[in-house]
Amino acid sequence: MKLKWQLVLFATAILSVLVIVHGDESSVKPLVKIVKGKKLCDKGWECKGWSEYCCNQTISDYFQTYQFENLFAKRNTPVAHAVGFWDYHSFITAAALYQPHGFGTSAGKLMGQKEVAAFLGHVGSKTSCGYGVATGGPLAWGLCYNKEMSPNQIYCDDDFKYTYPCTPGVSYHGRGALPLYWNYNYGETGEALKVDILNHPEYIENNATLAFQAAMWRWMTPVKKHQPSAHDAFVGNWKPTKNDTLAKRVHGFGTTMNVLYGDQVCGKGDDESMNSMISHYLYYLDLMGVGREEAGPNEVLSCGEQEPFNPSSPSPSSSSSSLSS
């Protein structure tokens, strides 16, 4: 019995090493090697695989359970629609796949905090059941949903019957943290994650880690070649062309909406869906202790005056609707 208790204490101590933060220093000392003059690091479970980004602070160094709980304070209230589904553990486990690629680890603590707030600003807006007079305010209700509650179609596009054929009896309505719609989006995302969500889209609504992974994959992956991912547009990896500049597409939160939703929300001036995402992002920056003043001016925050990257098709790559719609 005594030995068992000693093992429990030892395991607790090891776990504490993983999560304690000292100032701006990472709590986990990385393994380091130099390859062709470039410093590469491996930090174990959270940032594994010899990446330059793993030499930076990882997400758990600056964004922890209590902050997640503050951002999504109302998600487990009795009137919410996904009680007990979403949690910090699922988020940070999913993020471990993408931190070696720069998600939340690209350029120091401040940029990491801003990117996490930006990503979750999209997520919170799309999964919210908040409204104007809701308890705690309309921005406290993110992650209220994990699926579309009353779909009015099955979102099957037969143009993709040879690549991503619809499974009989299956509906491809909105599910997840950045809701997936349409058979080809489930097919493409499933291929990337190596999970058969084309035949089993319900996996997304049954596994919060997978739901976050699908959203992070979309955030990190360009919708089309020669266009940025939302991640690259936000952290500054993307180099705008002359045409981008003329189209008022610049680094920042506004262009992440352009990448993900195009003319569903961008180039329309004062759009309600766009404003909801911006409001969630600013709210989360405040709650994370960063402050909304770090978000930049309106031309960086908004895509209202931007020319969309891609015109909408009858079945776009993603939907600007929230799961409550």
Keywords:
single chain, 325 residues, mainly alpha, two-stranded antiparallel sheet, 13 helices, disordered N terminus
Kindly describe this structure.
It comes from Citrus sinensis. This is Chitinase-like protein 2. The protein has 325 residues and is mostly helical. It is built from 13 helices and 2 strands; from the N terminus they run H-E-E-H-H-H-H-H-H-H-H-H-H-H-H. The protein has a two-stranded antiparallel ribbon with strand order 1-2. A hairpin with a 2-residue loop joins strand 1 (31-35) and strand 2 (38-42). The longest helix has 19 residues, at 108-126.
* Overall mean pLDDT: 90
Label the structural class: mainly alpha
Radius of gyration: 20 Å
Order of helices and strands: HEEHHHHHHHHHHHH
Question: Percent of residues in helical segments?
Answer: 25-40%
Total helical elements: 13
How big a fraction of the residues is strand? under 5%
Distance between the termini: 55 Å
Number of strands: 2
Strand count, sense and closure of the main sheet? 2 strands, antiparallel
Poorly predicted regions: 1-24
- What spatial form do the alpha-carbon principal axes imply? globular
- In the sheet with the most strands, the strands line up as 1-2
Compact overview of the structure:
It comes from Citrus sinensis. With 325 residues, this protein is mainly α. The chain contains 13 helices and 2 strands.
